[in-house]
Design a protein that fits this description.
The chain is mostly helical. It is 65% helix and 1% strand. It has twelve helices and two strands, in the order ββαααααααααααα. Helix 3 crosses helix 4, helix 6 packs across helix 7 and helix 7 runs antiparallel to helix 10. It is globular and about 70 Å long.
Length: 287
């Protein structure tokens, strides 16, 4: 496809230079430099996603707060009161909410990134840009919802007599781990959804199963100690346990689990990037 150059793309004699863009062949590494060059596009896609999410909504940004808080209330009633599940010596509402804040970021990122490429089919067919910008901007736009829910979590801590521990300095790294996990799984799902449109219908079931495979309603201390490292293969285990340890000061230090979760998250991300890059040359034809 021939692209008309910008004024900066002129030869010294003033003649135009034609740039030809051809689809890649085989497995190609991600071009992060090119993605950085299109950082303004990523910014505007993030801003577009945020505006679309809250446009013509009655509750507006309150939706970002109500989702984890309402789930916390349900969990507190059924798992905290009726089932009387342990909560590592913490008030159950805080125990649940500290896990639901990063989990909601992950679950929403999965749902939205899975549909992101298909939703932007008109943009993909008309202009060239690094396709990675679409799922990256989709996941990054969820950081706004996370910050709003996290602010509510911090505001509720004094009400339950819980103060953040000194380990709170690790929270930014734990948020990065949550982003890496969400980004990795989102890349796989977004690329698969282009070829197999029923993937988007499987995402809610995947998210629901993943919810109960993660120590949100229950503590990971219920898992036998010799199985905890294997349990950490689920990268959200490290994120959730890390949040509780860093913010609430629980005695259950993540230890080997968070190391296993980090390695797993990185493997998923690298695999997702490579698969996405291998599939993106077909997006315009299939989507």
């Amino acid at each position: 496809m021939a692209v008309r150059p910008s004024p900066a793309e002129l030869a010294e004699d003033g003649s135009e230079v034609t740039t030809v863009i051809r689809p890649s062949r085989g497995w190609v590494p991600p071009n992060l430099r090119e993605l950085w060059q299109y950082r303004e596009l990523v910014y505007f896609l993030i801003w577009r996603n945020i505006k679309v999410r809250y446009k013509q909504t009655t509750l507006g940004i309150a939706c970002a707060i109500l989702q984890p808080v309402a789930t916390m209330l349900v969990f507190s009633l059924f798992f905290g009161k009726l089932a009387e599940l342990p909560s590592d010596g913490l008030p159950y509402p805080m125990f649940a909410l500290a896990a639901l804040v990063p989990w909601t970021f992950f679950a929403n990122g999965l749902t939205q990134s899975a549909n992101s490429v298909v939703q932007d089919e008109q943009l993909i067919r008309k202009v060239y840009f690094p396709r990675l910008a679409i799922p990256v901007s989709t996941v990054l736009s969820g950081v706004v919802d996370f910050l709003l829910a996290f602010a509510v979590l911090l505001a509720m801590l004094p009400f339950y007599g819980v103060l953040p521990s000194a380990n709170v300095v690790w929270l930014p790294l734990l948020l990065v781990l949550a982003f890496v996990t969400t980004m990795g799984v989102g890349l796989w799902l977004s690329a698969l959804n282009v070829r197999y449109r029923d993937v988007r219908h499987a995402v809610p079931f995947l998210t629901q199963f993943w919810l109960f495979a993660t120590p949100i309603a229950y503590p990971s201390s219920l898992v036998p100690e010799n199985w905890r490292a294997l349990y950490g293969v689920n990268p959200m285990v490290g994120v959730v346990d890390g949040f509780r340890w860093a913010l609430l000061g629980v005695d259950t230090q993540p230890g080997p689990m968070i190391a296993v979760s980090t390695v797993t998250a990185l493997v998923i991300l690298v695999g997702g990037v490579l698969y996405f890059r291998g599939m993106e040359r077909h997006f315009a034809d299939i989507v």
